[in-house]
Design brief:
- It is a single chain.
- The protein is α/β, with parallel strands linked by helices.
- It has helices spanning 16-22, 24-29, 89-103, 114-127, 176-183, 204-215; strands at residues 4-9, 34-38, 43-44, 65-66, 108-112, 137-141, 163-168, 190-194.
- It is built from six helices and eight strands; from the N terminus they run βααβββαβαββαβα.
- A six-stranded parallel beta sheet has the order 2-1-5-6-7-8, sandwiched between helices.
- The longest helix is centred in the middle third of the chain and has 15 residues, at 89-103.
């Protein structure tokens, strides 16, 4: 049985390399069952955008990237910020569509933090018949519902794409309540909670949940 290929979306101020490093434990528990394929968001985060929320590491990453900015004047993003802006989102969507063409096919998609918020939007577009993003399921880790007014159309209808929502009970960057708000927009989502914070959980107990979810799509 060939492993499922998952296209992965990193968090804000990360890139493909830093996500690959942080997903090392998850990659090990999914070895033989899923291949994680990452790529970097097209938007470069300027020095002004390197603001940190409570609970995040203050170490500055190399070549920080993002999927959209909530503050278009400074090109910054904050998940807690109500905004009329989603600057850069269309550029990111075009980049994602290009990866599907050049590196696909992919069985599923996986996102972390801002990347998980983007994955939720891709699920909504898939449900509407957008053929740029062919995938069967999604895993959203520390996801949240965007507070941009321009994004609210993504959440108008219940999303019937199979999803696994993963979030930490002590996450201070994306509080669990924000992840719960997002999963409320999905029909019959699978849920994995853990007692940790803002990271990709990969213990033996959590492995069982991941594999049970992935087994639904293995051929």
């Amino acid at each position: 049985m060939a492993p499922l290929r998952l296209l992965c979306f990193h968090g804000y101020r990360q890139n493909e390399r830093t996500f690959r490093e942080r997903a090392g434990a998850l990659r090990k528990v999914l070895r033989g069952r899923a291949e994680l394929v990452g790529f970097s968001a097209p938007l470069r985060v300027p020095e002004a955008g390197l603001q940190f929320q409570a609970g995040e590491s203050s170490s500055q990453p190399d070549d920080p990237r993002g999927w959209w900015f909530s503050n278009p004047q400074e090109d910054t993003f904050n998940a807690l910020e109500v905004s009329d802006s989603c600057k850069g989102l269309e550029e990111s969507m075009e980049a994602v569509a290009k990866v599907f063409v050049e590196q696909g096919p992919f069985s599923g998609i996986l996102g972390f933090s801002q990347g998980a918020a983007l994955v939720a939007m891709l699920c909504a577009l898939k449900q509407r018949g957008d053929q740029r993003f062919p995938f069967d399921f999604a895993i959203l880790v520390a996801g949240f519902k965007s507070r941009s007014t321009e994004h609210q159309d993504f959440y108008k209808e219940p999303i019937d794409v199979p999803t696994l929502h993963v979030f930490g009970e002590t996450d201070r960057v994306i509080p669990g309540e924000m992840s719960q708000e997002l999963l409320s927009h999905f029909i019959e989502p699978s849920i994995l909670t853990h007692q940790g914070g803002h990271f990709l959980p990969a213990s033996s107990q959590q492995k069982k949940v991941y594999l049970e979810f992935l087994d639904r799509f293995s051929k």
